[in-house]
Amino acid sequence: MNRTIEGIYRSHSRRVLATLIRLLGDFDRAEEALHDAFTAASQQWTEETIPANPYAWLVSAGRFRAIDNIRRRSRFDAAQLDIADSLYPEGEILETSRSEEIEDDMLRLLFTCCHPLIPAEARMAMALREVCGLTTEEIAHAFLIPAPTVAQRIVRAKNRIRAEHIPYEVPGKAELPERLAQVLHVIYLVFNEGYSASSGSAIVRADLAEEAIRLGRLLLQLLPDSEVEGLLAIMLLQDSRRHARTDTSGDLVLLVDQDRALWDRGQIREGLALSARAMAADSVGSYALQAAIAAEHARAKTAEDTDWRKLVRLYDLLLTASPSPVIELNRAVAVSMRDGPVAALSIVDGLLQEERMARYHLTHAAKADFLRQLGRTDEARQSYQTALSLCQQAPEQAFLRKRLAELGDQIRH
User: Fold this and answer.
1) Hey, CA dihedral for 156, 162, 163, 164, is it positive or negative?
2) Beta partners for residue 393, in sequence order
3) Which of left, alpha, beta for 18 (phi over 0: left; psi -120 to 50: alpha)?
4) At what angle do helices 100-113 and 2-24 cross, to 10 degrees?
5) Predicted confidence (pLDDT) per residue in 142-184, tens digit
6) Is 200 helix (H, G, I), strand (E, B) or coil?
7) What is the DSSP string of 233-271?
8) Whole-angstrom Cα Rg for the chain
9) What are the C-alpha distances in Å from 248 to residues 244, 285, 387, 400?
10) pTM metric for this prediction
11) Is 225 helix (H, G, I), strand (E, B) or coil?
12) Where would I find the beta strands (DSSP E) of 288-390?
């Protein structure tokens, strides 16, 4: 039963929280209500009594408990009683199953977290905590900053929302374009955490990837835009490979070694169509270019069919549009396939001069791969060990240990 509830928590908790924030009008009160609702579920549900609509049950339970908590607090005044009554007037029925508002609650939460009145450095941390459900430690790892810094940013963001009375709503169409970039970035970060979890025992968090795709579809309905099309294309094309990214033992399988028969052709067709539209727009942005890169991999029937020359050209365009050391690292992999490991190694050595990239395990893993290809075994082992010390995801750790073991076998033979 506990496993069942844990599964429901993973798949429903963010949407329950988003709705509770709308209903209760306060982030902290909603988070407390979410916790109380799942506590009640663990005490009341059995295998025979799990509600047909767990989401609606949890929202109602959380809302009831929020009111009870207000009424039970000592020395509450008339204003607090008014708050309680406004949250759930006598006899009101919560229509959670048919309300169109429910479907937009995650977008409301996303736009609230990304409001321009919230300090820029706090928006991302707030959104990843509330929309994605990441812990402060996971967010800190993703941004390579201390966890206390993340926690402070989230507290400041909540205080600003409260102090400025920031509305919990999707902005009107006139305001959408200026708010779009930040929201797209957060959806992409949510998807990336789902596509390749920053820590834990699993490579993929399917619930996050699916939620990001759902948000991308909703956003495209609100604002048809080439960058929204590009982002949705990226997510569909990358998620199409989900079932091929691990073997039957749960071990990581690299892109070049994946069984492409396991790729989701429906997602690929939709992603390719969206990518083509995004690239045909008058203005081509970074998401459209990233989608074009994902599309090249999706079109290749085998790893050998991949057009690495075209991919390097696309990465060059992407670096011009959106300079990023992580993009440059991905470009280095494409360069290694086009020109060989020596050229790629030079790029990675330059990236390792940056403190952030020196703390990123994939930089060291890429260097180790290039050194291994060049037969520089001792140096490769050192880089793999550094990557392993920085990596927090169990399947990637297992993959790096396997690489180290293979190097040991090469030396013995």
Assistant:
1) positive
2) 200
3) alpha
4) 80
5) 676 888 999 999 999 998 998 998 888 888 877 877 788 888 9
6) strand
7) HHHHHHHTTGGGSB-TTS-B--GGGS-GGGS-HHHHHHH
8) 24
9) 10, 38, 25, 18
10) 0.78
11) coil
12) none
